[in-house]
Structure formats: structure tokens, C-alpha cells
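User: Some background: our group keeps a shared notebook of sequences we're curious about, and every so often someone picks one and asks for a predicted structure to add to the entry. Today it's my turn. The entry only has the sequence so far, pasted here. Could you supply the structure so I can complete it?
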Amino acid sequence: MAENQLEPPLLGVSWDGTGLGLDGAVWGGEFLSCRDATSPFERTARLRTFRLPGGESAIRQPCRTALGMLFEIWGRMRSSATISLRCKISPKAICP
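Assistant: Of course. Here's the predicted structure to add to the notebook entry:
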């Protein structure tokens, strides 16, 4: 805001990766709003949270991130079968 001399109310969109949010959870992909110059920002909206199969392995194997998203949307059976075909990873290796 200060750098660009912007005045509230404002809505900002952050797609800068992941990090710990104010609540101690991992955040990534937020809409942040600021109502006035004296109020702190507010997390207005966000992407749905999902698990990362293999944790940090998902950084090196993005198909694991896709699996986490599919699992959140469709459930275990359909998503693990779909992603294992594309990534050539066995479902047991992804979702033990």
C-alpha cells in the first residue's frame, strides 16, 4: 500500500507460495482486505486446504500436489487411481 501510495479500502490477492499464517496453519493463495488505514488486514478468502501426499516430496513431484487436490475433491479411490496412471507412481506409494 505504502509503496504504491494506495488508500483503503483495498483487496489484495497473494499467490506467493506457502508460509505460516497468523493462525499457525500453512497459507497459500489468499485474498486479503484492508478496510481502513488503522485496521489490520483480514483474510477474506482462500483456496480450500488439502493434504500433500509425501509432504515435501510434493515440491519435487507436483503430481503429488495434484493428487492431494483430487483427493480433497473426489476421495481416495478415484484420485489415487487417476494420478498413479499419469505419474507412474503406485497408489500404495502415494496413499499408504
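Suggested note for the entry: The first helix runs from residue 57 to 60. The two ends are 46 Å apart (CA to CA).
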